[in-house]
Amino acid sequence: MERFEFNYPAAKALPGRAEAGVVGSGDLEALYEPKAATELKIIVTTSVDGSHSLWQHFFDRLNALRELPAGRLDINDFGATPGVARLRIEQVFEEAENAN
C-alpha cells in the first residue's frame, strides 16, 4: 500500500460531508469533509505501487477542468480505473453539495 498527499487551491467548501463508492476489487472509495480553508487536501491510499505520478496527473487535470472545493478528500483505492476514480470523486462532491 502507498499513501500520497496533494494540495490544490480551492474555492469555498461544500455544505456537508459525503462518501461515495466502496473499497473492493477494482473500485475506489472517496470521502469528502468540508473545511474553512483555501485549499483541498487530498490523501490517496492505494494498493497500486508506483502510481504517484498517475494520481498527480489525474488531480492536475481535474483541477484544470473544475473548481475544487475547500476541505479534505480521502481516496481509498483498490486499483480503480481513471474513469471510476473520476466518477467517485464527482459523486462525492455532488453529494456534499446537496447535503443539508
TrEMBL record:
HAMAP family hit by this protein: Malonate_deCO2ase_dsu
Posttranslational mods: Covalently binds the prosthetic group of malonate decarboxylase.
Cellular compartment(s): Cytoplasm
InterPro entries for this protein: Mal_deCO2ase/Cit_lyase_ACP, Malonate_deCO2ase_dsu
Primary role: Subunit of malonate decarboxylase, it is an acyl carrier protein to which acetyl and malonyl thioester residues are bound via a 2'-(5''-phosphoribosyl)-3'-dephospho-CoA prosthetic group and turn over during the catalytic mechanism.
Residues that span the membrane, as ranges: none
GO function terms (MF aspect): acyl carrier activity
Domain of life, per lineage: Bacteria
Family assignment from sequence similarity: Belongs to the MdcC family.
Keywords: Cytoplasm, Phosphoprotein
Lineage: Bacteria, Pseudomonadati, Pseudomonadota, Gammaproteobacteria, Enterobacterales
Positions of modified residues (O-(phosphoribosyl dephospho-coenzyme A)serine): S25
Name of the protein described by the UniProt record: Malonate decarboxylase acyl carrier protein
GO annotation, cellular component aspect: cytoplasm
